[in-house]
Design goal:
With 379 residues, the chain is an alpha/beta fold. Helix content is 39%, strand content 15%. The protein is elongated, with a radius of gyration of 26 Å. It has 18 helices and 13 strands. The longest helix has 24 residues. The protein has a 3-stranded mixed β-sheet with strand order 1-4-13. Strands 5-6-7 form a 3-stranded parallel β-sheet.
């Protein structure tokens, strides 16, 4: 999707009939379309091909020969059984940047296990450190391990394309959920690797910075972070607790971490005295990082979210106008592509076979009749 935002022609290969599994993930649905599917499939064309049929596999090989990048997320070895593994594709398309996305990687003791976000988040330790202090593990509200892996793959594809520009040769890349999430453990991992410090769940708080968490107000929550002593002094001033910043127990972050319970108790009691909007006004212009915990309604009416053009609207062929989160990055030298709506299953099958691969009408009709491909017919 990110590559499509930048102008790449993206061809999504789906199985005839059901298509991508996420098409059935719901409710909610808009008409018959899964909102989950709609959220991550803009700027893609859909071709419906039975790859288990040799004629279908032939179509994929022909597409690889004229494309720059081949992205797949099968359990290792499955595509090779169809003659579509990296070794097979690189023989006919030595330029290809072939990106494999799996749960555990291409080799190793667990490489043939299926991988889903929540399982990978558990195995890689994310669920061990996410949730309320002393409470049950909590899955993040969105699939952060999936998203991180997609973003790593996006960067890897860009790097491989630059390398190919220099050498003329493609390559195979192993992107997987476990590696992505373990890499994202950052300082939590480093704490253990260097100090043998086992982490735990902190709720909204931070293991190494105090205060850095959500505080309950009269009517909601506010998140405040003091990353240095000056910011802490400012927080104390705003809370009308200037004496706290002078207390030897809280004079620097190391002491504040050691005396976390007492300090958080004092701050929490004061935050309960006012409503969230009152605290937001007091913190405005202070230089201290702060913000409310917003609902989705509040997020998409936030003036900064609107200013950053993070609501992207487009016309879907069957359900009309839809809206999704827009691209996270803006560029000074060009605009991202005008968005095209997520495709219907096989919406572009015939068009791709004709225009990209030069298939004749009678050949296409034979493939349609035999069920090797399907074409969605718009009403």
């Amino acid at each position: 999707m990110n590559l499509g935002d930048l102008g790449a022609e993206v061809i999504k290969v789906e199985k005839p009939g059901a298509g991508d599994d996420t098409r059935s993930w719901g409710p909610p649905f808009v008409g018959t379309e899964s909102v989950y599917f709609l959220s991550v499939n803009r700027n893609k064309k859909s071709i419906a091909v039975n790859m288990k049929n040799p004629k279908g596999a032939k179509i994929i090989k022909e597409l690889a020969a004229v494309c720059d990048v081949f992205v797949e997320n099968y359990v290792p070895g499955k595509l090779a059984e169809m003659g579509l593994g990296y070794e097979d594709i690189s023989k006919i398309a030595p330029h290809i940047v072939y990106c494999s996305i799996t749960g555990y990687g291409q080799t190793g003791p667990k490489f043939q296990r299926a991988g889903y976000d929540s399982v990978a988040a558990a195995v890689s330790g994310l669920l061990h450190i996410t949730g309320p202090e002393g409470g049950e593990p909590v899955r993040p509200g969105v699939a952060m391990t999936d998203l991180a892996t997609g973003l790593y793959a996006y960067g890897a594809i860009m790097a491989a394309l630059l390398q190919r520009y220099k050498t003329g040769k493609g390559m195979h890349m192993d992107c997987n959920l476990i590696s992505s999430q373990v890499a994202c453990l950052t300082y939590i991992a480093s704490n253990f690797l260097n100090c043998k410090t086992e982490s735990k769940r902190w709720g909204t708080a931070h293991a190494s910075i105090v205060p850095y968490q959500a505080f309950k107000t009269k009517d909601g929550y506010i998140v405040v972070g003091a990353g240095n002593d000056q910011q802490f002094a400012t927080v104390c001033k705003i809370l009308s607790l200037p004496e706290i910043s002078q207390d030897s127990r809280y004079k620097n972050n190391q002491q504040r971490v050691l005396n976390r319970k007492e300090l958080v108790g004092i701050l929490s009691a004061r935050f309960l005295e006012k409503e969230t909007t009152e605290w937001l006004e007091l913190f405005e212009g202070s230089g201290v990082p702060y913000g409310p915990i917003n609902s989705m309604k509040q997020v998409f009416s936030d003036p900064q979210v609107l200013h950053n053009r993070l609501i992207m609207e487009m016309e879907h062929p069957t359900v009309g106008k839809i809206a999704v989160p827009g691209p996270a990055v803006r560029y000074s030298q060009f605009q991202v592509s005008e968005p095209r709506p997520p495709p219907l299953i096989g919406q572009h099958t015939v068009d791709i076979l004709k225009k990209t691969l030069g298939y004749k009408d009678d050949t296409i009709q034979e493939l349609l009749s035999s069920g090797v491909i399907t074409q969605h017919k718009l009403m």
